[in-house]
Amino acid sequence: MALYSIHRDELDKLLESPYLRAKLRQMRYLCWHHTYQPRQNAFMMSLLGLTGSGSWLSAFRLNDYISPDGQYKHAFDSIDTYHRLVRGWKNGLGYYFGIEGDGVIRFGKRWTNQLVGAHCKEDSMNVISVGIALLGDFGGDKKEKDKWEKPTLAQVKSALALGAFLCELYNIKPIADNMHYHHDHAPYKSCPGYTIIERPEIRSLLTLGIKNTMVGRSLDKNAKKLHELLSNA
Ligand SMILES: [Zn+2]
């Protein structure tokens, strides 16, 4: 099954069929991730015949996924395939939601069927939190700083809109304690990237942006502020 796509303005549709087929599970936290193709997997992917002339590796770089005309490309479809074929997860994409470089929100069976996630195995986070991944490398490896990326403004807008939607839906209070990073539970992981986890002001502004969005304040203004902060790392 292919992943679904939804724009941040249409999030209410997530509650309609075919977007949701199972009763909501209670979630307590949002768990934020970044995702890109780790280098060590590229060889394995080529062995499995999933790549065309080494393009797999570059396919996951954020900037490759925003074409000049703003057309969005389907990076999370490849990640879904990777999770199925390489990780062997029959329910596919381990995150509930993925945010593409152009801000389009992607999701699959884990959301529609309200299944357990496969995004953070520590502390039962796969059961009690909504895993949301932004496409890009926001600081995964300190030795490869030159390759680090920044979330796009469109991604930040979608993150705030989706965060606000989910907090309302699951009755999660928009406070910093409820905005978790993968790294918080798995300190050996750099996810969602050093440029984010090492700057506490980002978590505060993410939380505030979600809270403001929930009470109807300007999404664009809050997103712009957060995006500026992220860009000035
Ligand atoms: Zn992660």
Give the SSE layout.
Blueprint: E1 4-6, E2 29-35, H1 39-47, H2 55-59, H3 75-85, E3 97-99, E4 105-107, H4 109-112, H5 125-128, E5 129-135, H6 153-170, E6 179-181, H7 182-185, H8 194-197, H9 200-214, H10 219-231
Parallel strand pairs: 2-5, 2-6, 3-5
Antiparallel strand pairs: 1-4, 3-4
Helix pairs in contact: 6-9, 6-10, 9-10
The structure holds zinc ion.
Indicate the structural class. Answer: alpha/beta
Main beta sheet: 6 strands, mixed
Beta content comes to 5-15%
The CATH architecture category equals: 3-Layer(aba) Sandwich
Task: Just give the CATH class.
Answer: Alpha Beta
Task: Estimate the mean pLDDT confidence.
Answer: 87
Spatial order of the strands forming the largest sheet: 1-4-3-5-2-6
The helical percent reads 25-40%
The CATH homologous superfamily is called Peptidoglycan recognition protein-like
Task: Determine Rg (CA atoms, Å).
Answer: 17 Å
> What letter string, H or E per element, gives the SSE order?
EEHHHEEHHEHEHHHH
Could you say which small molecules are bound to this protein? zinc ion
The total beta strand count reads 6
Total count of helical runs of at least 4 residues: 10
Poorly predicted runs: 38-43, 51-60
Question: What is the 3D form?
Answer: globular
CATH topology: Lysozyme-like
Number of domains: 1
What distance separates the N and C termini?
38 Å
